[in-house]
Amino acid sequence: MFPWLFPYGSGGIGTVNETLSDSEHICHLLLYHDKHFQVDPEFSLIVFNHITIKSSTIRSHLIVNNKKFPEIQNRLLSISPSALESLSIKLKNDSSAAPINDEEKECYHLLKDLDLVAWKVKGSITNKKKQRSEINSLIDHWGSPSWYITIAPADIKHPICVYLADESCNDKFTPAVYTASEQAKMVINNPVAHAQFFHYFVTLFLREILGINSEHEGWFGHPVAHYATVEQ
């Protein structure tokens, strides 16, 4: 995979020292000094899908009601694989498709009794439920939050993001002057620069404006708790 990025056939994902995880290896490649991994139009998307699928496969499991376990076990063994395959194709084409025979109704009934647990998989429904539980726990302990703040940094217009996306940049911050279309194209073609800028901007806001993990008090006083998340 990616012969244009690994022309000698070595150094690819999963082919290096086993002590280095795939996520750490990908981060290392995406921060490579000449940025050719960052600006590749396919690498970031494919490795993200690879990590997500691997994580959901390894860290996901099914849970059922304890009282229904023997019943569901028997239904799992007796359900028709062809009906499941037919139903999956039907739902892929139309997510609101209704069952048309008894076998498909049994599949729906089984899916209703099964719950997929994948709280360690980012973006999964269970992960969002976990975040909601954490927020509810904070509210239960500290009370309702005083502030709700939404941040949407203008990445394509910010000189730091443009600097991070610029392939000709060096360790010294010397931002060049580009047109609006050149800036937008530069940032769009480099999602890693966008992520770095977003992380830096939000961390700076939490530390300097809100006083979180900082020696000084924030603009709105001393925060006893906070919860930050991103849209998924």
UniProtKB/TrEMBL annotation:
It holds the Pfam family Helitron_like_N. Residues 27-231 form the Helitron helicase-like domain. InterPro entries: Helitron_helicase-like. This is Helitron helicase-like domain-containing protein.
